[in-house]
Amino acid sequence: MLFNSIEFIVFFIATVIGYMLMPSRLRLPLLLIASLVFYGWSGPLFLVHLLVAAGLVYYFAIAIEKAEDKPRKQMIMTIAIVLLVLNLVGFKYTSFFNESLRGLFGWFGASYNVPVLNIILPLGISFYTFLMIGYLIDTLRGDKAERDPWVFGTFVFFFPKMIAGPIERGKNLLPQLRAPLTGFNYALMTAGLQLMLWGAFKKVVVADRIAPFVNRVYDDPHAFDGVAMVFATWLYAFQLYFDFSGYTDIALGAAMVFGIKLLPNFNRPYFAVSIQDFWKRWHISLSSWLNDYVYTPFSRSRWTGLKMYNLMLAGMMLTFVVSGFWHGANWTFIVWGALHGSYVVVSLLAQKPWNKFAKNSGLTKRPKTYRALKIGVTFFLVCFAYIFFRSDSLADAGYIISHMHTGWGGFAGSIRSVIDGKLAEMALAILGIIVVMAPEWYKDHAKVGDIYRALPSWQRWGLVYAATVAVVILGAYYNLDQKFIYFRF
To answer: N or C: which end of the chain has fewer CB within 10 A?
Structure first.
């Protein structure tokens, strides 16, 4: 069930009405049942599969807590995590490994008779796998295992974050679910619905308008020159951000309607001043998860024999490669992750000479110029890495990179080849980028939320109605059911 579908709108309204009418003790069971319906919409077998996985994690966590000594606790946790990882690998990466072996055998001229495997990927498997692994590790580290099946079930299945996150933590969500759930709250409901509307605007009005231009180039990069490829990559940076942050806004807003606060996932990432800063602002729930459960344990290990600084750098690279592999079963994602890891490692190694250069060149004496330069360089590096993230294959990515220098003598004609006569759609896409990014830039000077709330009532509701009309009209005209990009993961 897509957030930007008629089915979800009907489902959400019915769930909210039922939630508000229910007595306090029945609100949590209602949320769990509604969440099961939401996930089961994608297929009953996937729902049964996830119910089994959640049930095993529920009992494994209790067993970890009850175990008498640390070695036994670690053994139980290891068994549970191995089962979860095997489940993820079986569904998400079996075909990838199979095709990689086929290519390897072909490279050596050997026969490989295993047929192509078409395995259907359960929605949200990467997200709920990380959620449950984090929960098990936190239990080993001393957190209390949840005994109430209604609370635990809602923690796993809560529908706003079920398909594409945020990747929740027990410390944040479980206490909220254990407490009595409040009923109607006008302030929370209004704020939540407005945030959902803003997320739908980002997705339906802006991201989906950008998508055709990006697809046109990346579906057949050989038909375009470097200018067109660079332009499409720049557009994709905003398409991906608005698509995913739009989903997150809908998820956070929907949870807010029920009085539940989910973890934030974005904080003006395209205003980051370094790649490290970017990952503190982009997909925050994933980057913090990787930091806590991959980088930190690895960087504290002693079995590698590496010195502390080298261990830290190796941990950085490992973490980003895991991030890339988590995103998708394709070498393009692995290279994308490794490229971000390389950015971070090189920046750390070059930090001292760069700081010396910035000081000697006088950049540090012009902080605004220096900050703008760092933001520009960071955005360029992020966009360059997106070539791998968006490309269908390493061959396509290599072609794009090797031909980026072409076409600059006929800049206008190259841009026209991307637009393909759809000037109104492109104007709408560019206007949408400006509308969404302007508040993020303005946030340096004032809180946009405070400005919005200070507007007269008729102006606030006028903006709400305008956004609603835009979502409805453009969603109906261009197809409301375009999937969110991160549903693939």
So the answer is: N
Classify residue 4 by burial, with Cβ atoms within 10 Å: 0-12, 13-18, 19+: buried
* pLDDT one-digit tens code per residue, 337-347: 999 999 999 99
Q: How many CA atoms lie within 13 A of 146 on its CB side?
A: 27
What are 255-279's pLDDT values in tens digits? 999 999 999 999 999 999 999 999 9
CB 398 within 8 A of CB 229: no
CA distance 345 to 432: 35
Kindly state the tokens that stand for 80: 């549970």
Range list of H helices, 328-366: 331-349, 351-360
Contacts of 487 (CB under 8 A, 6+ apart): 2, 123, 163, 164
* Residue in the block written with tokens 């024999």: 305
pTM: 0.91
Is 159:34 a contact under the CB 8 Å cutoff?
Answer: yes
- E-strand stretches of 67-181: none
DSSP 124-152: THHHHHHHHHHHHHHHHTTPPPP--HHHH
Task: Work out the number of other CB atoms within 10 angstroms of the CB of residue 161.
Answer: 29
Phi-psi region of 211 (alpha: psi -120 to 50; beta: other; left: phi over 0): alpha
Instruction: Tell me how far the alpha carbon of residue 54 is from its chain's centroid.
Output: 22
Question: Which residues, given as ranges, of the chain have pLDDT below 70?
Answer: 303-306, 443-453, 475-482, 486-489
Tokens representing 77? 């946790």
Residues that are catalytic: 327
Question: Which residues are within 8 A (CB) of 362 and not within 5 positions of it... i.e. 6 or more apart?
Answer: none
List, for residues 150-173, the tens digit of each pLDDT value: 999 999 999 999 888 799 999 999
Nearest Cα residue to 220 out of 476, 435, 391: 391
Q: What is the pLDDT of residue 480?
A: 52
The full DSSP string for 232-295 is: HHHHHHHHHHHHHHHHHHHHHHHHHHTT--PPP--S-GGG-SSHHHHHHHSSHHHHHHHIIIII
User: Shortest CA distance to 247 belongs to which of 11, 6, 483, 489?
Assistant: 483
